[in-house]
Design goal:
- The chain has one helix at about 5; strands spanning about 10-15, 25-30, 35-40.
- The protein has about 45 residues and is mainly beta.
- The protein has one domain (about 5-40).
- A 3-stranded antiparallel beta sheet has the order 1-2-3.
- The two termini are about 15 Å apart.
- About 0% of the residues are buried.
């Protein structure tokens, strides 16, 4: 995905639970400056 490594250290794609028991994709990583954990919701494939 474009730009993920620009602000996130060690980005990984994960599967998260959504409303109604559905599953959704997201990218997770840590901020390069402060180390805060971040999530970015991805579109369906």
């Amino acid at each position: 995905m474009q730009g993920e490594t620009e602000y996130a250290r060690d980005p990984q794609e994960v599967v998260m639970k959504r409303k109604g028991g559905a599953e959704g994709r997201a990218m997770t990583g840590a901020c390069e400056k402060c180390g805060t954990k971040m999530f970015r919701i991805l579109w369906k494939k």
